[in-house]
Structures are given as C-alpha cells and as structure tokens.
Amino acid sequence: MFASYLIGLREGLEGALVVSVLVAFLVKSERRDRLPSVWAGVLAAVALSVGFGAVLTFTSAHLGHTGQELFDAVASLLAVVFVTWMIFWMRRAARALSKELRGKLSDALELGSTAVVVMAFLAVAREGLETALLFFASAQGAATTAQPLIGISLGVLTSVAIGYGLYRSAIRINLTKFFTWTGLLLILVAAGIFKYGVHDLQEAAILPGLGTPAFDLSAALPADSWYGALLSGMLNITPQPTVLEVIAWAAYLIPVLILFLRPARAQFTPAPAA
C-alpha cells in the first residue's frame, strides 16, 4: 500500500503542479474563458490513463501462465525505464517547468480552444500513463488488489490537496527537497520492480536460475510478519530471492543511486572577451 501511495503522491503532484501552472496562467492573463478547455484536456488524460491501466490488467488476467509472466515482466521493465527517466528528468527540468508550460500555453491560446485542450491533455497524459504503468508493475506482487488501489487513490488525493494548497498559496513546501526524497524512495521501489521483472522472466523460462536461491531469510523475515509484508510490498525484498534477482537488484540500485546523489555540476559561463 505504501509503495502505491508513494507512486500516487509523486506522480499525482507532478500532474497537479502542471494543472495549477496552466490554471494560474489563464487566471492571471484574464483568459478564464479557456479554463473549460484545460479541464477538458485534463479529464481526457485521466480517462486515458485509467483505460490504459484497465487494459493492462485485463490483458494480464486473460493470458496463460507463461504469457502472463512474460507480459508482467515486460510491463515491469518498461515501468523501471520510465520511472528512472522521470526521476532524472524532473530533477533537471523542475525549475524551468513552469516557464516552459506557460510558453506552450501561450502558443496554444493563439491557435484556439482545440489547441488548448490538446496541450493540457499532452501535459497531463504523460504523467497519467506513467502512473498507470508503474502502479500495474508494483501491484503484481501484492496478495490482493485492494490495498494497492487504496494506496494509490490516497496518494492521488493527497497530491491534489497539496497542489490546490500551493495554487492558493495556503501551504508552502520545498519542492526540490520533496522531489529529492521521493525520488530516492522511488529508486528503491524501482529496484524492487526490476527484481520482480527478472523473477517473472525466470518464471516464463526466459532466464535460468529459478531454483537457485541466493540465501534464505525465512527465519528472520517471516512472510506473515508486519515488517516482512512491508519490505515485500514496498521494496519487493523476499526471504528467498534467486541469485539472478539479487544481482539484478544491486546492478540497478547501486549505479542509479550514485548518479542520483551526485551533485549537479554548475554550468560554467565564460567571461566576455575584452
């Protein structure tokens, strides 16, 4: 549930920030007549994201064992790619995001209502599709589908409340620190999803080593304990991972953490010639 909550909070807040920038720009520009176009684009993006998640779930449920494992593995690996790209992109582009969105919306306003709808749709749809794919991948290891669904719903609702508070200037948070800490947590979640995707490939007989566990922590990490359930649901840490799963988990987590925690290089501006 916590992993799904984190996904909903992080991705939802990115979407909420996009919408708040668009709405604030129209209000300050005295173009409130275009607000329905923005909301139409947002609702269309939300509908597309929900439909995409439903298609993933339906497709996975109607495949045979091998096909389902392979489908889940591909979805997990794609989710890892997208979330990793999103984490580093947001770290680099967060400061310029508002200016970029305002520029695109200004261009769309000159083209008419349809352009505004399309612009708002594209701005939110990317976040929604990433959320659906990441949620589907992270929920595969859950014993029930209720807890991940509750978690992501609470995360999205929390992000909407935070986004509205930021828009109304009722609350102030350090977005740089927020995206840094949630980025660190999502890297841990993505490492678990990558490990789970490798396990699915082993289940589908694409990769070897399914019957070769790296270690056995069943005594120290009982599956029915609260901390065992937390580690399994949040980070996909299981008592008996295979050797290949452990290698995959470490091969993703270590270099990505190093790159993420590495200080950003300051841009050098040469002095003007005399």
UniProtKB/TrEMBL annotation:
**What parts of the sequence cross the membrane?**
38-58, 70-88, 108-125, 145-166, 178-198, 242-261
Protein topology in the membrane = Multi-pass membrane protein
Which key words are in the record? Answer: Membrane, Transmembrane, Transmembrane helix
Q: Which Pfam families match?
A: FTR1
Per UniProt, subcellular location reads as: Membrane
Q: Quote the NCBIfam families the UniProt record gives.
A: EfeU
Q: Give the family, as the similarity comment puts it.
A: Belongs to the oxidase-dependent Fe transporter (OFeT) (TC 9.A.10.1) family.
| Official protein name in the record | Iron transporter
Source organism of this protein record? Streptosporangium pseudovulgare
